[in-house]
């Protein structure tokens, strides 16, 4: 799409205006942001467009559209998806060998499970291998309670971060600034990193990893700005 506007402003109601006209989401709702900081960051994305509008270069706008069009209307569905991660989190499934990989997982993941237990009361079980391990319903309920208080904006970022990392726990650690987006991404890819060190890098896999790392950074920034 060709750029059709010259001036981008943030209105008093924190909507984004292009030459004075309000931006609408794909669902035809007014793009109104919850904080001045997020509104200014999204306005910057629109200002930085060249002769052609490139949606791929506007990740915060995309997340905001999702929050407005989807996260409020489909909240229960999103909560159910996150609940699925709570029952099958990446951090529950551990390597049995080699010893170095086992140790890397323990060092990165055990403190996070301890933190979750201390902050939510959820005592979560781990297992060796990939065979499903059932979690206690009480633990899942305790973990899920931390999600019910989230607004649509934070829930949008949480859903993105959880999907990228395969871990609700890593997403919660990111939300609570327990981990940076760099640390959270590294923790989600311990096995992949170990295998790459052993067998060498795969160009296609590396390109995918860079894309996912950027998406996680965007989700982290979105949650921070939406809550500031």
The portion of residues assigned to helices is 55-70%
What structural category do the secondary elements indicate? Answer: mainly alpha
- Please state the second-level CATH architecture of the largest domain: Orthogonal Bundle
The gross shape turns out to be globular
Oligomer: single chain
Give the full name of the CATH homologous superfamily of the largest domain. Answer: ATP12 ATPase
CA-atom Rg in angstroms: 20 Å
Order of helices and strands: EEEHHHEHEHHHHHH
Could you give the count of β-strands? 5
Strands side by side in the biggest sheet: 1-2-3
Main beta-sheet annotation? 3 strands, antiparallel
Summarize the structure in words.
The protein has 228 residues and is mainly alpha-helical. It has 2 domains: 8-71, ATP12-like, CATH 3.30.2180; 75-226, ATP12-like fold (Orthogonal Bundle). The protein is 60% helix and 5% strand. The protein is built from 10 helices and 5 strands. The protein has helices spanning 36-47, 59-71, 75-87, 99-120, 137-148, 152-165, 168-175, 181-188, 190-199, 203-226; strands spanning 8-10, 16-18, 21-22, 93-94, 127-128. It has a 3-stranded antiparallel sheet with strand order 1-2-3, with helices on one face. The protein is globular.
């Amino acid at each position: 799409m060709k750029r059709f506007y010259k001036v981008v402003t943030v209105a008093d109601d924190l909507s984004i205006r292009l030459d004075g006209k309000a931006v609408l989401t794909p669902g035809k709702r007014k793009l109104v942001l919850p904080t001045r900081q997020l509104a200014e960051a999204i306005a910057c994305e629109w200002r930085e467009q060249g002769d052609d509008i490139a949606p791929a270069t506007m990740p915060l706008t995309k997340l905001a559209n999702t929050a407005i069009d989807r996260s409020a209307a489909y909240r229960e569905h999103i909560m159910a998806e996150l609940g699925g991660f709570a029952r099958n989190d990446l951090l529950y499934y551990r390597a049995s060998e080699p010893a170095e990989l086992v140790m890397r997982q323990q060092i990165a993941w055990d403190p996070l499970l301890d933190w979750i237990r201390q902050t939510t009361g959820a005592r979560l079980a781990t297992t060796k291998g990939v065979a499903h391990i059932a979690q206690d319903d009480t633990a899942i309920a305790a973990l899920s309670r931390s999600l019910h208080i989230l607004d649509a904006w934070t829930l949008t970022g949480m859903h993105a971060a959880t999907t990228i990392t395969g871990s609700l726990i890593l997403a919660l650690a990111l939300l609570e600034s327990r981990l940076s987006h760099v640390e959270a991404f590294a923790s989600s890819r311990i096995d992949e990193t170990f295998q790459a060190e052993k067998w060498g890098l795969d160009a296609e896999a590396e390109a995918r990893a860079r894309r996912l790392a950027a998406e996680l950074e965007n989700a982290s920034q979105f949650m921070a700005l939406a809550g500031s």
